[in-house]
Design a protein that fits this description.
7 helices, globular, Aminopeptidase, alpha+beta, 2 domains, 11-stranded mixed sheet, 245 residues
């Protein structure tokens, strides 16, 4: 499968995962246009973490799109949000900066066909069944999307030294499994637990019929995911209104 198709599948899954999360957050909605998906969350603590907009590649009029983005957040009283721009869209990034946005952070889109997954040692995993509340608490996200139903996603928690230490949410869409919300307690880092849990989730996704897997990697984890088969599909740079910095 080519990189373009993998990328398109990954973005589609990402947007659908936002729509799924919105079902569990009072007042949340994801506004989709031809050029963007605008996730708007008004409930706290959701609004501190989940207000993001992803721009499609090849958009024609950044100014018009930003008008829609700012309107969607403005009418809901949301001041803190991020606009994601693919690194290949230099002209769009410059237009956003000229609008008063500043670079904040980045993640890298990575994906692969599931059959390309390298062998990963999962023997250290100590998997437990966890409620959604227990799942979110692993990464200090207590109270996130409080009305979410777990029926449409697959949540994983693994213990380390008897404590819930590593978390991951897998979300399937149209044959692609998105890996999200990966987190590990500081005391359990550098043990290989996150990549092992990711591999375990990927193998279970294959059993469900998924053929590809995608994720947004932090810079710290890029090389680790690459070693087990994930392909680099480019960086999303995140821009925020200068006033919120």
């Amino acid at each position: 499968m080519g990189s373009e198709e993998l990328f398109d599948r990954s973005v589609a899954t990402l947007v659908q995962s936002w729509i799924y999360l919105a079902t569990g957050s009072p007042g949340a909605v994801v506004v989709e246009t031809a050029d963007a998906a605008i996730a708007t969350f008004v409930h706290s603590p959701d609004r501190e973490f989940l207000n993001n907009t992803v721009l499609r590649r090849g958009i024609g009029n950044p100014g018009k799109i930003l008008d829609a983005v700012e309107s969607a957040y403005g009418i809901r009283g949301i001041e803190r949000y991020a606009v994601w721009v693919h690194e290949s869209e230099g002209d769009v990034a410059r237009a956003i900066e000229s609008r008063g946005y500043v670079y904040d952070s980045s993640t890298r889109t990575m994906a692969m066909e599931i059959d390309d997954l390298a062998e990963v040692d999962t023997s250290k995993l100590d998997l437990v069944e966890a409620s959604l509340a227990e799942f979110w608490s692993v990464d200090g996200l207590d109270g996130l999307v409080p009305e979410l139903s777990a029926d449409r996603a697959h949540i994983y928690v693994s213990r380390f030294q008897g404590e819930n230490a590593t978390m991951l949410l897998a979300f399937d869409h149209d044959g692609d499994c998105g890996i999200y919300m990966v987190g590990t307690l500081p005391a359990a880092r550098c043990e290989g637990l996150a990549i092992a849990l990711s591999a375990h989730a990927v193998l279970e996704a294959k059993q469900r019929g998924c053929t590809t897997v995608s994720l947004q990697s932090t810079p710290m984890a890029e090389s680790i995911y690459a070693k087990v088969g994930f392909r680099d599909l480019g960086r999303f740079d995140e821009y925020v209104p200068e006033a919120q910095r």
